[in-house]
Amino acid sequence: MPDAPLIDCRQLSMSYNGGETVVRDVNLSVAEGEFVSLVGPSGCGKSTLLRLVAGLRNLSSGSMQIRGAAPGARGLRTAFVFQDPNLLPWRSVASNIRLPLELPTGQGAASAKVDSEQLIAESLALIGLNPEDATKRPRQLSGGMRMRVSLARALVTEPELLLLDEPFAALDDILRQQLNEELQRIWWEKRWTGLFVTHNVAEAVFLSQRVLVMSRRPATILGEIAVPFDYPRKPELRADASFAKLCGEVSRLLRAAAEDAA
Amino acid sequence: MKLRAVLRDSIPPLVLAVAIIVTWHVLVRWFDTPSFLVPSPVEVANVAWEHFEKLARATGVTALAALSGFTASLVAGTAIAFAFSQSRIIRLSGYPYAIFLQTVPIVAIAPLIINWFGNGFQSVVIVAFIISLFPIITNATSGMLSVDPDLLDLFRLHKASRWQLWTKLRLPASVPHIITGARTSSGLAVIGAIVGEFFAGYGRDQFGLGYLIMMTSNQMKTAQLFAAVIASTLLGLVIFGAMGVLSSTVLSRWYDHE
User: Fold this and answer.
1) What pLDDT does residue B175 have?
2) Confidence of residue B257 (pLDDT cuts 50, 70, 90)
């Protein structure tokens, strides 16, 4: 990785008010434009690590720099996708997607050249929603569609750093695969830096350039596996023997992590 | 479709009401009950018809007092909930007094209120206000506090101001809770207004149902008393029903509920 890292964590630890340690001694470096997945047992602290990177939680010790600044500093366009689509039920689809543009960090996104309506329309199209869906309410949408809207809400600000916290965990397998394909296509097109948390091994391998395996709580990074496949990746990749082999390697590490602490 | 559902739901209770009225009538006739004890439904209907204007005016006065008290508690309750949701200290110090509103017997403090605010409409409104305030405070507070933590993170990530957090998240998110509280409150406000009128009787020319109930009871005009009680029940039903329609419209249009 020739670029300077966008995310640079050293010996990062975090505990709640001096109580339980959630994240311990994490060294993490993610390059500009890289897509990295974090896999680990459920409840291990992956999500907390993601929130630390977003500047939504405070670290207890160690250091973290995001493009040379403190996490959460203004200047770097950051977006977050949650496990639950978390749409506002009283807003239409378009209005939900507009939300980040109404808040301080998104206000620079629309300029004289592109107005926010255009950004919203582009975002809808990018994530595979029809223009006529724009006026619908979240309750009129299926679970998969809601997640698409949630992704569109994250992409509308044209983020440089996109943090995804198990966004597809609640979806059925086929939907999950479809959305993985879309996400990977969009990343290839836009080249934001992606940090993706999941406990699904195949998903992590399919999406990312590197998979980091985390231990049980308190979470730390146990190992790292590079995923050498070219982008854009085709659905057929999942049937490939080398894909299965990589998944096997990640699973082995993950299993060791689970049994180690048990 | 909708009309059919309304008919389907309203026919059984109507049939029961007719059955009760017929039985009542038959029993009163059978035992030849004196009218001051239990008047027959026919007698009640006649008296109600005879005094229709008086009853209607009294119902209007009570409705106005109940709605004024209810509106005031909706505004004040939401404002208090807003204050409660600002800090734990405010909530902890204020909440016991909110519960006090719920537990104090309203008939016990109604005379005090009349002492302080005088005989008349304003005191009735205050009684209705006090009795209907608590459900709004508790529901609105829990609504304002129960916002999804992920959504709070989303707003924080985008550096939302305190004002934006309120107008774009906490307040709209608490609307379904406020509406739930308002449904309970609307029924309580009618009770509050009638209780208030027991004590604050206004004058002879302008009075509400509570006063009418009190006077007819004292004068053993039992048929009129029945008519007034039925009018108060209907008033409560109409206000509660209207709130129900309003809330299901709002909730189904803008929120996930129902």
Assistant:
1) 92
2) low
Which CATH architecture is the domain B50-254 placed in? Orthogonal Bundle (1.10)
Sign of CA dihedral A168, A169, A172, A177: positive
Would the CB atoms of B256 and A74 count as touching at under 8 Å? Answer: no
CA distance B139 to B124: 24
Q: What is the pLDDT of residue A84?
A: 93
Domain ranges in chain B are 50-254
Are residues A138 and A22 located together in one domain of the fold? no
Note whether B156 contacts A103, CB cutoff 8 Å. Answer: no
The long-range contacts involving A179-188, CB below 8 angstroms and separated by at least 24 positions, are: A179/A144, A179/A147, A179/A148, A179/A151, A180/A206, A180/A207, A181/A233, A181/A235, A182/A127, A182/A128, A183/A151, A183/A207, A184/A35, A184/A231, A184/A232, A184/A233, A185/A232, A186/A126, A186/A127, A186/A155, A187/A35, A187/A231, A188/A231, A188/A232
| The predicted structure's pLDDT at residue A113 | 57
Q: Hey, are the CB atoms on B153 and A100 less than 8 Å from each other?
A: no
Judging contacts by C-beta atoms under 8 Å, the chain B residues touching residue A108 are none
Q: Residue A141 sits in which domain range?
A: 85-159
Q: pLDDT value at position A73?
A: 84
Q: Given an 8 Å threshold on Cβ–Cβ distance, is B151 in contact with A86?
A: yes
Give the pLDDT of residue A215: 87
pTM of the model: 0.84
Q: Would you call A56 an interface residue with chain B, using a CB distance cutoff of 8 Å?
A: yes
| Residue B171 contacts A, CB cutoff 8 Å | no
Token pair of A71 as six digits: 């996490």
In chain B, which residue's Cα lies nearest the Cα of A105? B158
Q: What is the per-residue pLDDT for A1?
A: 45
Last residue in a domain, options A101, A131, A159? A159
Where among A130, A159, A188 does a domain terminate? A159
Mutate to test the interface with B, among A103, A139, A141 (most CBs of B within 10 A): A103
Which residue on chain A is closest to B149 by alpha carbon?
A86
CATH (domain of A225): 3.40.50.300
Residues 100-159 (A) with a CB less than 8 A from some CB of B? 100, 102-106, 137-139
Specify the number of domains making up chain A: 2
Q: What is the pLDDT of residues A50-101, one digit of tens each?
A: 999 999 998 888 889 998 888 888 888 999 999 999 999 999 999 999 999 9
